[in-house]
Amino acid sequence: MKDSSTFEFSIGAFRTTVTFSEDFPSIPDDPVLVVQDEHTAVLFPYPETQRVIIPSGEEGKNWHSIEKILGRALARGLERRSLFVGIGGGVVCDVTAFAASLYMRGARLHLVPTTLLAMVDASFGGKTAINFQGWKNMVGTFYPAEQIWIHPKVLKTLPERELRSGMAEVIKSAMLMDAELFQLLEGIAEQGGSLKNLSLGTYETLIRRSLLVKAFYVTKDLREQELRAHLNLGHTFGHGLESATHFQRYTHGEAVAWGLYRAMDAGLSLRVTEPAYGKRVQALLTKFGYAERVSGVRTEEILNAMQQDKKKRGTLRFLLQRTLGDTVLTTLDPDLVKQVIERGLEP
Ligand SMILES: NC(=O)c1ccc[n+]([C@@H]2O[C@H](COP(=O)([O-])OP(=O)(O)OC[C@H]3O[C@@H](n4cnc5c(N)ncnc54)[C@H](O)[C@@H]3O)[C@@H](O)[C@H]2O)c1
């Protein structure tokens, strides 16, 4: 990577600085509370007195973690202007940000995302959350970090499957509004091979361009009144699959990629999506190794999970695309939804 570069964004009443850094960021001295999960605690050691460790994965995304973080902050005498630093994937970012937003009505917040998914999506944009009573991301706040450090070298230890999970969000970002990024992804897919072999420079470009796409939406619509919903391209079907399989069988990105196939299928069926574009997206997803058809789950289970989502969101809306950069938020006929899901399952 070349020189470190910095971007500043206004998100609602907040300002977020994103810095790409060649070195692991140095965490300011006390008063500070570092939050990590069991894996990032081992990878990036900090003095025990300064940190809290939460369980890895969705298991750590609950009230217990929040209580633990707030309790430690209080015990260490952190004040309102003290700093919380989350070092980890999307789970650590969501949980640290939620705890920081609550502590004395809002402590300072820095995030060091260490998964590709957290770099391109979860750390940026201000959504914080924990899972509650079986509902994913049901309780949370809007609280953008004041500083996000992107240090792509940390991706070196990330398993291939987690890299592929983050790559689905990169593909989604390209589809929303970045034709050059889409072409770059097609070039990468064409070469084949492991995502672990991509250069740090390539990762930096993928991350930077994805963040700029997300910034376009969140700087205009922090609280997801309308425009920000476009970031959910592929997510209505994807959440249905994730939820029907209890967030255990598929990573977030694998489910989103399946949702992108489904969104293309629905758009092609309705003649909304340009056939050449729909096929291009499907070919890209396939070359990256995402499953177009999944097994071990029934249409009804996915439909039920989507109905649960409907309870949470009011109406069940879907994002279709006419072509790259031309996205439509719409409702769909329930029969079509069923057929589209069925076509995404192994017979
Ligand atoms: N707030 C938002 O806008 C937003 C957006 C997208 C996703 N999310 C949330 O993000 C979460 C998913 O994030 P995720 O995919 O990063 O999952 P994750 O945080 O569970 O991380 C995946 C795994 O990678 C490990 N890990 C982290 N960094 C590593 C590294 N450098 N090397 C090796 N292992 C490492 C973690 O310990 C974990 O086991 C979900 O809970 C989702 O709801 C939030």
Description:
By secondary structure, the protein is α/β, with parallel strands linked by helices. The protein folds into two domains: 5-157, Rossmann fold; 165-342, Up-down Bundle (Dehydroquinate synthase-like, alpha domain), CATH 1.20.1090. It has helices at 38-43, 63-75, 90-102, 116-122, 160-177, 179-191, 200-218, 235-244, 252-269, 275-287, 299-313, 334-342; strands spanning 5-11, 14-20, 32-37, 51-54, 83-88, 108-113, 130-132, 135-139, 147-150, 318-323, 326-330. The protein has a seven-stranded mixed β-sheet with strand order 1-2-9-6-5-3-4. Strands 7-8 form a two-stranded antiparallel ribbon. Strands 10-11 form a two-stranded antiparallel ribbon. α3 (90-102) links the parallel β5 (83-88) and β6. α2 crosses α3 and α3 crosses α4 (116-122). The protein is globular, with a radius of gyration of 20 Å. The N and C termini lie far apart (46 Å). The model has no long low-confidence stretch (mean pLDDT 94). The structure holds nicotinamide-adenine-dinucleotide (NAD). Nicotinamide-adenine-dinucleotide is lined by residues 37, 39-40, 43, 56-58, 61, 88-92, 94, 114-115, 117-118, 121-122, 125, 127, 137, 154, 157-158, 162, 165, 252.
Bound molecules: nicotinamide-adenine-dinucleotide
How is the main sheet built? Answer: 7 strands, mixed
Strand content: 15-25%
Uncertain runs are: none
Shape: globular
Ends apart, CA distance between termini: 46 Å
- The H/E string reads EEEHEHEHEHEEEHHHHHHHEEH
CATH architecture of the largest domain: Up-down Bundle
Please tell me the overall pLDDT: 94
Count of domain modules? 2
Helix content: 40-55%
CATH hierarchy, class of the largest domain: Mainly Alpha
CATH fold assignment of the largest domain: Dehydroquinate synthase-like, alpha domain
CATH superfamily (homologous) name of the largest domain: Dehydroquinate synthase-like - alpha domain
Strand order of the largest sheet: 1-2-9-6-5-3-4
Structural class: alpha/beta
Number of helices: 12
